[in-house]
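Example 3.2
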Amino acid sequence: MEVDELEHQESGGRLINNSEIQIKVEADESMSISTCSFIPKIIKCDNDLELLRLSKNPVVVLTRLPDYKISALRPPTPQQFYSEDESLSSSDSDMLWKPEDDSSDCDFSASNNKPNTSKVIKCETVNTPELPTTSNNSNVVEEAPLVISSAFAHSSNETTKVRPNLPEEEVKVDMMVLAKKRTMRWQRGKILDIVTKEGGRLKYKVGYEEKGKRLVSGHHIAFDASPKLEQLFVGARVVIRSPNNKFRFRPGILAELPSRKNRLRFLVFLDDHTPVYVALPLLHLACRPLENVLDDIVDGPHKTFMKQYLKDWPYPHLTQYRVGQTLNAELNEVQQRCEVQVVDCSLIQVVFQENQQKEWIYRGSLRLEHMARFLELKETKENSN
C-alpha cells in the first residue's frame, strides 16, 4: 500500500495529516521560534502493509519579532524625576550635573496607585524676550538665558510647606544642644537650667563647650542629634555643621528635600544667603522654631528672596546656564563679570574675572543680574495687570 498523504494510523486511532508541525515560542521580548520537523520513513511489514514511521529532528529558527510586539511585551517604565538632557559634569565636586543647551529641568512623577495614568508635575519654561540683551567689553551681544519654573516636589506632602504634625521632642536640663552665640555662629553646649519668664516664655541657660554661658530662646537652640527624615520639610529652620570643621555650625532654612533631581541631598540657604548641599548627618533641627521662620532673619535682600522662594515653592524660578558662559553677578554689592565653572543641580560655581574669587550661587538668586531683572519685570507686569 502506498501512502500518498502522510497518514499514519496509530494504536489510538488518531490521524496526523501534516508533513511538518511548527511550534512557535516567544521566549523573550525580541525573538525566538522553535520548530520541530517530523520526517516520514516507510517501513515494510510482514502483512504487506506499509506503515509510516515518524522520526523527529529538532530545528531552531530565530526570527525577529515586529516592533509592536516587542513594545507590548516590554513592561512600562516609570517616568524619571530628572531631565534626560542633564548629564554628570566632570569636576572635583561630588555629584554634579551639567545641563545641555536649552535643556529642561522638568520633572515628572508617576502615580503608583493608578498604573494606567501618570500625574505630570507642573514645569513651565518661561522665555524672556522682554529681558534686554547685554553686551560685554568686546561688543558681543549676549542673549538673556532661559528662566524656567522647575518642579522639585514629587509627592503631595512636599508642596504644603507645613510643619509635620508630630509631637515635640522634650528639651530638658543636662541635654546637649547647639546654641546661638552670634548671628552666624552657633556652638555646642549643655542646657544648665530652664527659666520661665513673664507670660510663660521659656529661656534656656546654655553652657558652651568652648567657654561662656548664655540665656537663649527656644528658637536659638537646636537638637544635637540628626533629625529623622519625616521631621523635615521645605521651610524648616535648621542648623548645619560645616563639612570641613566639626566645631562650626551655621543657621539656615531648608530649601530642597532629597530627590533624584538634586542627587539625594538637602539644599539649605544659610542666613547670609550662601546656598549649600548637605547630607542628613550634617543637619540639625531647631528645637522650638518661630511660627514664621523668616522672623528669625534680619531684614534685607536675603529675607526678601526667602519670602519669594517659599511663596513659589515647589516651582521656583531658575536661570539656565552652561559651563563657560559669562554673566554679571553681585559681589560686594556691585555687579561684576564672572564665568560659570561648574553646574551642580540648582547651583552654579562662578569665578569673578576681577579677582579670580570663586563662589557658589543659587541659579534663582537675586545676585544674578538676569534673575533680578526678570523678577523686576515680572512684578511690574503683575502690578499693571
